[in-house]
Write a structure and sequence with these properties.
By secondary structure, the chain is an alpha+beta fold. It contains three helices and nine strands; from the N terminus they run βαβββαβββαββ. The strands form two sheets. Strands 3, 4, 6, 8 and 9 form a five-stranded antiparallel β-sheet that branches. The chain has a four-stranded mixed β-sheet with strand order 1-5-7-2, sandwiched between helices. α2 (about 60-70) runs antiparallel to α3. The chain starts with a strand and ends with a strand.
């Protein structure tokens, strides 16, 4: 079975339960889930608004990141779900989940997965600040 069980870019809320259900496996002794949320500050400035935009190749890049982790570590299930569009403070922006036979592999894989997704996936963040300024993060 393909360990990459759920990949999605969505403009609607994402669910930790959906990720958990996707990666559950009878051979897994550990499941690690990372949830990235929108915080109210960045680099000492108050964030008021945040929008994510994705290139059409973003989902393929997420798959490549997931397949890389699956080829390097002993995992059973992998999921990556990322929001696009306008998000509010506290909203979930990204969820990654990994199931593995042992907890150490699950923790390692989840950390490597979110880092790889952030590194190679063309998703850009536009932040609006309380002082009226804004910035794009992650653009080429």
């Amino acid at each position: 079975m393909d360990p990459v069980r759920l990949l999605a870019l969505r403009d609607t809320d994402v669910s930790v339960d959906e990720v958990y259900q996707a990666i559950r496996d009878p051979e897994a002794g550990g499941i690690a889930v990372f949830v990235g949320t929108v915080r109210d500050h960045d680099a000492g400035r108050d964030v008021l608004a945040l929008d994510y935009s994705a290139h059409p190749a973003a989902e393929a890049a997420m798959r490549a990141a997931a397949e890389k982790i699956a080829s390097e570590l002993d995992v059973r299930g992998i999921a990556v779900v990322h929001r696009v569009g306008s998000l509010a403070i506290g909203d979930i922006a990204v969820i990654v989940g990994v199931s593995a036979p042992h907890r150490a592999d699950a923790f390692d894989a989840a950390r490597l997965l979110i880092d790889e997704v952030k590194r190679q996936t063309p998703i850009w963040k536009h932040q609006g600040f309380a002082d009226g300024s804004d910035e794009w993060v992650g653009t080429p």
